[in-house]
Amino acid sequence: MLDATNRYSALKLFIDGEWTDGTGDRAIAVENPSTGETLGDLPAASADDIRRAIAAAEAGFQVWRNTPVRERAALMHRAAGIIRSRAGEMAALMALELGKPVKQGPAEIGRAAEHFEWHAEQALRTFGETIPAAPGITNTALRVPVGPVAAFTPWNGPGASPARKMAAALGAGCSVVIKPAEETPATAIVLVECLVEAGLPKGVVNMLFGDPAEISAALIASRTIRMLTFTGSVPVGRHLAVEAGRHLKPCILELGGHSPVIVCEDADPLAAADASILPKFRNAGQICISPTRFFVHETIAEAFTERLIAGAEALKLGDPLGAETDVGPMIHARRRDAVHTLVSQAVEAGATLRTGGRPMEGDGYFYPPTVLTDLPDTARILTEEPFGPVALVQSFSDLDDAIERANGTDYGLAAYAFTGSSEAAARITDGVETGILSINHFGGANPEIPFGGVKDSGYGREGGSHCFDGYLVAKSVSHRTRAA
Predict the structure, then answer these.
(1) Which of 32, 104, 121, 206 has the fewest C-beta atoms lying within 10 Å of its C-beta?
(2) List of domains in the chain
(3) What is the pLDDT of residues 333-365, one digit of tens each?
(4) How far apart are CA 441 and CA 418, in angstroms?
(5) pLDDT tens, residue by residue, 83-122
(6) Average pLDDT estimate for 269-288
(7) Which position has the higher pLDDT, 5 or 449?
(8) Would the CA dihedral through 74, 75, 76, 82 be positive or negative?
(9) From start to end of 110-199, where are the E strands?
């Protein structure tokens, strides 16, 4: 088993190719959500550290943008291989700092590696275009890197989210200053170690931790930083968008979700319930595309619900380092208490608690898999993202009504459906307001698929053929090749 003390004794900032404690006078305690104990201390960047990281990114950009694209791609492929070789270590780190069961960690680290591989290959295909013009004039549109990027990633995806953003920046030829979440720093630190081992030039990636407001304000205001990418909550995303607008900085914002699942009359209710259990309760439901609002046809609703309850109750809740654990703790007491408040308010308003619904006693921030039915329209949990291990099951009789209710929040990140009917699938595809739709399975987060939402779930896309949107800009060149 990983020695947490030794691992966390090495928590550092990464500036201009060097690991450093920085020049700040404050440290942030990193907590183990399973026990409430402190894992280690994370140095908080000072204003001078932030300035040095920006300057390093500016210099690193000049080096990286002029590095041949095949060399950039080869380095990213090497990094992906190193990441895979350290998957077990990072899975244990995520179990310690996030509470994600260790058996679920390798899948996330595998996706982190895939992001570097996908973006490395796409970097070789950043084609421009030739535009018809008059005789003797050649018009072209080049795709060139936008410049140094500011990236902000959340605590709930400490492997995949930093990898996605760094891979996009590096593949496009940009440098990056990244601020991962202070709650889960060690996984991101290992990712940067893998890039360094692969041969990344100094200054191309810089990593800061500290006061999020101070760091984001300094990065956005800097003339060096040319765009920002953020994954996190809607309120913080709104704030960053306002600040970016003041400084005319383009953004990619991947914000919250409250994913609906429509289970049609023709679907197998038991198979649909079985397929839903792990996606719903993985990482204690702390996933932006976690399925939460289940709309099930009234003829199969009870069969679906009973099977979902049985599956939820069969999951093993406990130490995330345990080989058999299915559900670990929530990230901290605030998140656990926020979930319990929403569940309690729903029950008080008339919802039926079918299983779970009470914080576990003892150390750590454990909350059991929970299923609610008979939810009244006044239940806040129907419109506020719970971001926890809670499934909300409601019945419907008319598919158009289910689609309307699925659209009944300000979110539009991911949605799911189960049906064998091509007509129903087409109606759901046309009608549900979402950036990502998966039918008869839970997908949508692979590197080859555009990832992002609509409405309050943000704007811009990551991954897929759109993976460099925002990181590359069109540069039009008109060249007269002979005298008029």
Answers:
(1) 121
(2) 4-255+458-475 (3.40.605.10), 259-446 (3.40.309.10)
(3) 999 999 999 999 999 999 999 999 999 999 999
(4) 8
(5) 999 999 999 999 999 999 999 999 999 999 999 999 999 9
(6) 97
(7) 449
(8) positive
(9) 129-131, 137-145, 149-152, 176-179
